[in-house]
Sequence to fold (185 residues):
Amino acid sequence: MTIMTNESTTPVPAAPQAPMPPSPAQALSTAKQVEELADQLSACADSIHARVMSDIRRHGGGEVPAAEQAAERALFDAETELRQHANRLYAEAAACIVSSLGQSQKNLIQLTADAAAKIRQITRISDGITLVARLLGLAAAAATGHAVPILLAVDALKLQLDVIALHNPPAAAAQAASSLPSSDS
Fold:
């Protein structure tokens, strides 16, 4: 495109337009945003690890009940899988870009940060296992680079965080660090 001026008949080239930055509603639209999600998933894996180690240490070297051992092993396995998904997102960030997710990157990152915080406070083992499964679902969906599975995974994660909020009222969350998780009802 050229611009004509009144003073001259010589065309003046138009200034090149800079690429528009992603709008707030375009989560995962750049490799950097995919890497940011991978960072948050790694932080969730760190929270899982810290929580499991805390639960094990609570027994003071004594015997850990079989049901709790099984739950802790499942969480360790999930931690490993979540780290693998996060590492894949780092490695393939450019291939995982979503053109129009319709979600804000800030909200997506906040959702995973909330999940990491809930892992540390959760009082019901089944809530923790389900939350970790939802995070794994989000990680797997993000790796596809397709909006529909990602949106479904985000909705499932939001729903699980709401369930956890019901099961862990503020008073219970404060006591969670000092009490054993229940075996579920």
In short: Residues 31-57 form the longest helix (27 residues). The chain has six helices and two strands. The beta strands are 2-3, 12-13.
